[in-house]
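testing teh design pipeline on a random one, pls ignore if ur not involved
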């Protein structure tokens, strides 16, 4: 399992993913789940994945290979004229990879399904954010649904629903995401540090800051401990339940 979040702000896009690919008492692995493509001045694309690692790696490898092949039969995400068309190409690739594995591969302990988050902007259009399902269909973020989560979503969702504001700065958005991710990893061993994040500023047409938050990061430690203490203080400040006698 994993946890990834994509946010659509007035200022641009914020994407964050964990790196946990397996979890157990003696079996913990990490792997990068965020891939980017960029043609400065033309387009910037960010893709995050949750699900079967073989499936997601096959999808990313195929998409990346097509950016170099210039094959008219296999159009490239770097040549598609709009973010919608990029989403369609990614969705078709995901569906084809899953179908191929299910048709020819042996039975596995885990399914071949995967879900993707695609965000970015192409010159001439606005920034857009899509959630792409294993069936090959997808939905787009909007004012009514300005952020998407994939993977282990339930533990980190309440803080996003309560605190998200499209007018927030990148710094405020990252603080909110760190709280959401911290809440998730404390509740589920299948999500873990380090966390990767990518920023994209509207109309820049180039990728912004990308960085990795490690478990010994001082800011992460401050937010994690501070949020836990703030929750305890908030609970203590509420009136106790009164039992009827």
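output:
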């Amino acid at each position: 399992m994993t946890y990834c979040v994509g946010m659509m702000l007035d200022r641009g896009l914020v994407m964050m993913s964990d790196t946990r690919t397996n979890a157990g008492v003696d079996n913990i692995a990490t792997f990068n789940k965020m891939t980017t493509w960029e043609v400065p001045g033309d387009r910037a694309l960010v893709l995050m994945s949750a699900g079967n690692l073989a499936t997601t790696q096959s999808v990313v490898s195929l998409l990346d290979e097509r950016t170099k092949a210039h094959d008219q039969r296999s159009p490239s995400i770097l040549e598609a004229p709009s973010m919608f068309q990029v989403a369609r190409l990614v969705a078709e690739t995901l569906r084809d990879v899953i179908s191929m594995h299910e048709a020819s591969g042996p039975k596995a302990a885990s399914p071949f399904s995967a879900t993707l988050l695609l965000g970015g902007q192409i010159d001439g259009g606005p920034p857009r954010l899509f959630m792409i399902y294993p069936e090959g269909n997808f939905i787009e973020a909007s004012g009514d649904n300005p952020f998407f989560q994939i993977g282990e979503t339930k533990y980190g969702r309440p803080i996003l629903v309560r605190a998200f504001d499209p007018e927030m700065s990148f710094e405020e958005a990252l603080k909110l995401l760190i709280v959401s991710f911290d809440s998730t990893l404390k509740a589920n061993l299948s999500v873990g540090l380090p966390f990767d994040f990518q920023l994209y500023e509207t109309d820049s047409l180039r990728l912004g800051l990308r960085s990795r938050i490690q478990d010994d990061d001082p800011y992460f430690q401050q937010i994690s401990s501070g949020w836990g203490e703030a929750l305890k203080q908030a609970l203590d400040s509420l009136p106790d339940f009164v039992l009827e006698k």
